[in-house]
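Exercise 7b. Backbone tokens:
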């Protein structure tokens, strides 16, 4: 089973980080229309995890996702990472996001992805908060180490039930592969841009479960600026040393040139379902239960 997901956030992040440059909005509108048209052409339904603020400030984007028959999931309200929030703040953030999204699409939202996959062993209580808010399925666990967060001790990279203090969610962890002895993601973000298409495709064919995750920014041929120390620290909440800034500059820009073509090939050569559809296809009585 291959699950297709997008994290949809760019318009709002552009607004708060750069005051909304018209040429960037236009790039997002055009790139997104192109992706949605391609999904229609191939009859693929995806899950688009959207920010609540996207529904508030750019409702046409969220409305169009729903109109085309894709699942609208929640990607938090304002893209604050969960490890920067306490329980009350996460509760408020999730409730506000769900209200904004549901207002626009007129339907309940039950799938969730945390910004930057920020559910880790340090904030397991997020499971209780999300379940209390009516979330049923989560795709926030990155079961190896990564730059920001990562849940290295998480025992598997296939769908399972997660339980914490009485709360339960269906979990879709990021799928991993071993490259040069190191567990790493391959099916989305910078990993998808970095790795050659044949390797991603071959890995997907060898596994029963793959979850792909994309951002429009992965697909647009726009070179990110080299950030000043102050801008870097504001954006990434870590020291803006020269080394950090160079590494991130390379990571954010690598493989941009042919990323859309790679995505197109991937969509043509593999079958995909949304998280909601996967929920119906999986026999949840047979998967592992992971007590966090
Ligand atoms: Zn995000």
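Sequence design result:
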């Amino acid at each position: 089973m291959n699950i297709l997901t997008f994290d949809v956030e760019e318009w709002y992040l552009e607004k708060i980080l750069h005051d909304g440059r018209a040429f960037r909005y236009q790039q997002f509108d055009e790139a997104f229309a192109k992706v949605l048209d391609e999904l229609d052409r191939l009859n693929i339904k995806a899950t688009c995890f959207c920010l609540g603020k996207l529904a508030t400030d750019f409702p046409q984007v969220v409305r169009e996702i729903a109109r085309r028959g894709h699942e609208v999931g929640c990607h938090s309200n304002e893209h604050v990472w969960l490890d920067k929030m306490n329980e009350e703040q996460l509760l408020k953030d999730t409730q506000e996001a769900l209200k904004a999204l549901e207002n626009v699409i007129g339907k309940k939202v039950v799938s969730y992805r945390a910004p930057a996959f920020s559910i880790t062993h340090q904030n397991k209580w997020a499971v209780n908060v999300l379940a209390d808010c009516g979330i049923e399925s989560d795709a926030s666990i990155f079961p190896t180490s990564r730059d920001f967060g990562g849940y290295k001790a998480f025992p598997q990279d296939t769908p399972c039930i997660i339980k914490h203090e009485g709360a339960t969610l269906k979990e879709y962890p990021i799928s991993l592969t071993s490259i040069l002895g190191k567990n790493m993601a391959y099916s989305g973000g910078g990993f998808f841009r970095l790795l050659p298409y044949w390797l991603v495709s071959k890995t997907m064919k060898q596994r029963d479960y793959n979850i792909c995750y994309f951002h429009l920014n992965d697909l647009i041929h726009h070179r990110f600026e080299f950030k000043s120390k102050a801008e870097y620290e504001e954006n990434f909440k870590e020291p803006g040393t020269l080394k950090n800034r160079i590494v991130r500059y390379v990571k954010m820009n690598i493989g941009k040139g042919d990323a859309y073509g790679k995505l197109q090939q991937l969509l043509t050569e593999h079958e995909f379902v949304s998280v909601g559809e996967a929920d119906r296809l999986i026999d949840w009585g047979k998967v592992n239960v992971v007590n966090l």
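Instructor comment: The radius of gyration is 18 Å. The pocket of zinc ion is lined by residues 7, 9, 75, 79, 115 (CB under 6 Å).
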